[in-house]
Amino acid sequence: MERRRVKESARRRLREFDVGDRFSRLPLPKASVLLPLTVRAGKLHLLLTVRAMQLRRSPGEVCFPGGKREAIDKDEIDTALREAKEEVGLQPEKVEVVCRLVDALLMNHVVTPVVGFIEDTFQATPNPDEVSDVFVVPLEYFVKPSNYKTLPYKTSSGYSGWMHCFIYDDHERKMSFKIWGLTAHFAVFLALVIFGKHPTFKVEYDLDNLISSAETNFMNLYASIYERKKSNL
Ligand SMILES: CCC(=O)SCCNC(=O)CCNC(=O)[C@H](O)C(C)(C)COP(=O)(O)OP(=O)(O)OC[C@H]1O[C@@H](n2cnc3c(N)ncnc32)[C@H](O)[C@@H]1OP(=O)(O)O
Ligand SMILES: [Mg+2]
């Protein structure tokens, strides 16, 4: 009963923030990630992966199941579900897709976060070519962390800013995970959407206008990178 209530309240909030296919036609290559939500002990948790060390890009970093769009994918949701199946053995029919949130930019790709509920009994089977570990974090950690800092960054196109960095200690497994950059950006936004409260650290949004400020941030970043590219042609 508690599980049903927690999911219903999250579902309602998420639907208000669904961008649908609003950003689908941006002329950049596409990638998607799945933000898999599960309810454990009455609380929402997010499933995350650790990338295999032999991957060319971002080896050993924490990220969501996901990857680049392929020709067979009909939309961003298809990409996220296909990649989640390939990487952690999650069957697409076992995911209740709820919404797409505002995109982000990484490595010249538009990355779409797709949010879905998965069963609390799901047992991941990581594909060792791409994933070395799978773990879950209470979603609330991304608004009320015990170990948090910001990291500066600068893109090759000259854009500079800062990013969130969380250290999450999984006491049961006696392991620590560093969650930062794009992955932390999506986790924080998801937690803000669902909990609708102020986090214990500074964020890049106007919390009274979360949807419009997230879209404005994205379009400003897009314009600063993409318009600069066009002017270099
Ligand atoms: C601001 C900078 C940051 O945020 S970095 C901070 C911390 N890191 C993060 O937040 C991670 C962010 N990155 C991501 O989420 C992902 O890289 C995104 C952008 C979603 C792209 O997905 P990604 O996982 O790289 O792409 P992908 O899954 O399509 O492919 C990954 C590589 O694996 C390869 N691959 C594919 N299938 C197989 C297979 N069966 N066996 C072996 N290898 C396989 C792909 O060819 C791909 O390789 P490559 O990257 O093209 O060299
Ligand atoms: Mg991947």
TrEMBL record:
Coiled coil: none
Family note: Belongs to the Nudix hydrolase family. PCD1 subfamily.
Domain of life: Eukaryota
Major site of localization recorded for this protein: other
Protein name: Peroxisomal coenzyme A diphosphatase NUDT7
GO molecular function: coenzyme A diphosphatase activity; magnesium ion binding; manganese ion binding; RNA binding
Transmembrane segments: 179-196
